[in-house]
Write a structure and sequence with these properties.
Blueprint (H helix, E strand, L loop, with lengths): L10 H6 L11 H9 L6 E4 L9 E2 L5 E2 L1 H12 L3 E4 L8 E2 H10 L1
């Protein structure tokens, strides 16, 4: 296991080596920063994003604000596969479901 600062992560190397890699990020802004630094389009699981000001619940363990939903919509439109689930045994919540739940607020 390697623990690297986001700016030190060799995304191109990881993408090219053929090895499945798990990347853990703190929050949606970190995902956007990783994308800017070269993270290729991939599947994203939002596992646990905690409640806070202006956040709405979109799954049992994920709360997002309007800005995060908008940024994730952009990624989704680019072909990123986005889902939410806290543990592997949970049924994944699709991004479409998250947007619907956010809208019902």
């Amino acid at each position: 296991m390697d623990i690297l600062a986001l700016r030190e992560t060799p995304f191109a190397t990881f993408a090219a080596d053929g090895v499945k890699t798990l990347l853990l990020l703190r929050d949606v802004p970190a995902l956007l920063e990783a994308r800017k630094l070269g993270l290729p389009r991939t599947r994203v699981n939002l596992g646990n994003v905690h409640h806070g000001p202006m956040r709405r619940q979109v799954s049992t363990s994920v709360f997002l604000n309007a800005e995060e939903i908008a940024e994730l919509k952009n990624l989704h439109a680019e072909g990123w596969d986005i889902e939410a689930r806290g543990v592997p045994s949970e049924r994944p919540v699709t991004f479409t479901e998250m947007v619907e739940r956010f809208g019902k607020g």
